[in-house]
Amino acid sequence: MIRAKNITGFSKAIFALRMKVFLFFYYLPDLFQGKVSIRKFVIFLRRLLYFLSKIYHNKFVKIGNTIRLGLYIPGFPSRAFLTACRKFMVFDSKLPCTTVLISVTSACRFKCGHCYQRYDIGKDVDINLTIHAAKELKNLGVTFFNIEGGEPFLVYDRLKPLCAAIGPDAEIWINSTGDGMSLDRLRELKKLGLTAIMFSLHSADAQKLNTFMKSDKAWDVMVEGIRLCHEADIPVTFNSCLLRDDFYNGNFQKVMDKAKEFHACLIQLIKPKSSGGWLESGVDYFAQSDIEHVKELVNRYNNDLQFVGYPSISAQIIEEDRAVFGCTAGGTDRFYINAKGDVQPCEFLNISFGNIANEEFTAIYHRMRALFINPGECWLCEKYSPEILKKFKETHLTALPLTEDLSKEIYSTWDRGTPTEIYEKIEKRLK
After folding, report:
1. Which of 34, 182, 203, 367 could form a disulfide with 208 if both were Cys (CB 3.0 to 4.6 A apart)?
2. How much is the pLDDT for 3?
3. Which residues are 401's β-sheet partners?
4. Which residues contact 202 (CB under 8 A, 6 or more apart)?
5. Nearest-CA neighbor of 278 among 241, 234, 238, 306?
6. pLDDT score, position 177
């Protein structure tokens, strides 16, 4: 079993210094070989260090031979990490996207109430089209591939060739319930570049999780999947979608205790979204005071010595804050391809820019990115879910995302808010 070692306090400061020195000397040959001018080399380093300063609040964690600075940042000093850093050498166009979430199937034997794929009804797209898109994305600089379903292991004949096409020079994370997982499959995927498995841990109580996922087998399937991952030396991580009250009634702390018990390296906190299964019912409202309370809890677990043995937390509420990255959907730094082949700004925003079964992927991709020139402060999935629901009902659709024409009616007039400072500074002032 791979055991994570958290890097905090003085050790964290020393590591940060060593990393800066390493990066300077690693990219220095680009200057000597004339690939970049002295001026641009200095700007590149300033951009990179400025970006890294925005994630210093995270708990760094050593997993195997690499050190993880954040969920969507490949482990240092892997090839994927060093390739991702090169995005800051791009000066004549929008910075490349480095992260994609790809669904390989809508098939799943669980019925989670919040599932954002609740209405993603339709036939899974030809996997060769998905593989082609993944190869194109590697050429465009994407280094973090998050693969999900439904349940990916139920369609192993689709999952395996996709992982093989991505290869070991990028990171591959798979979101799974554990259903369909086996030791042989995990070992095979590890050879192809599998980096980690992410399970869903929405409650520390077995019965409550079973109720949430609407199956009396959900907990046992997850526990067995975790056991298999540990046996295969594959890091275990979690995502957790907690309601507002969970951060006040002790449930958050119980989830963290359970994640530690399961020897998890990292846990992602997903803010409830009015999307998919919750599009019509809506979700708990987080007032600004609630958001600040969540931030305080996360920062305490990530930075206080009493929680040094707990998994690192990546919280959407912090990462998408205007003072950090804001909303990076639409290929600013991440986007989504669903199982039917729709290219979406993110998994929680039920609109489509086109389908890879009907149009060349790169044409769709560049059309979408052209609309997302800068990341904004506005959380689009929350602000525009009422309009998406209205069009979904008025047009009597039976599936989501909205059609391309209906989607255009949404995004052609929306307001993304003020651009976040980090990308404005990197792309305009540091140029």
Report:
1. 203
2. 78
3. none
4. 209, 212, 213, 240, 241, 242, 255
5. 241
6. 97
DSSP state of 88: G
CA–CA dist 423, 325 (Å, integer): 8
How far apart, in whole angstroms, are the C-alpha atoms of residue 365 and residue 137? 9
Nearest CA-CA partner of 99 in 161, 54, 166: 166
Give the chain's residues under pLDDT 70.
429-430
Long-range contact set of residues 82-85: C-beta below 8 Å, sequence gap at least 24: 82/26, 83/141, 83/143, 83/169, 83/170, 84/141, 84/143, 84/144, 85/23, 85/27, 85/48
Q: Could you check whether the bond before residue 330 is cis, i.e. omega within 30 degrees of 0?
A: no
Distance CA 201, CA 209 (A): 8
CB 313 within 8 Å of CB 238? no
pLDDT in tens, 278-332: 888 888 899 999 999 999 999 999 999 999 999 999 999 999 998 899 899 999 9
| DSSP output for 99-133 | EEEEE-----S---TT-TTTT--SPPPPHHHHHHH
Evaluate the CA torsion angle 229, 235, 241, 242 in order and state its sign.
positive
Q: Return the pLDDT at 429.
A: 67
> Quick one: pLDDT at residue 4?
84
**d(C-alpha 99, C-alpha 336), whole Å:** 9
Instruction: Classify residue 141 as left (phi > 0), alpha (psi -120 to 50) or beta.
Output: left
Q: Among 225, 268, 272, 222, which Cα is nearest to 245's?
A: 272
End-to-end CA distance of the chain: 45
DSSP letter string over 352-418? -S-BTTTS-HHHHHHHHHHH-SS-BSS-HHHHSHHHHHHHHHHTT-SSSSPPHHHHHHHHTS----S
- Integer Cα distance of 266 and 213 in angstroms: 22
Q: What pLDDT is recorded for position 419?
A: 84
- State the DSSP H helix or E strand holding residue 270, giving kind and residue range, or none if neither: strand 266-270
SS3 label, residue 144: strand
Q: What is the pLDDT of residue 167?
A: 92
Shortest CA distance to 268 belongs to which of 240, 299, 295, 292? 240
Q: In the structure encoding, which two tokens stand for residue 292, read together?
A: 């600040």
Which pLDDT score is estimated for 229? 98
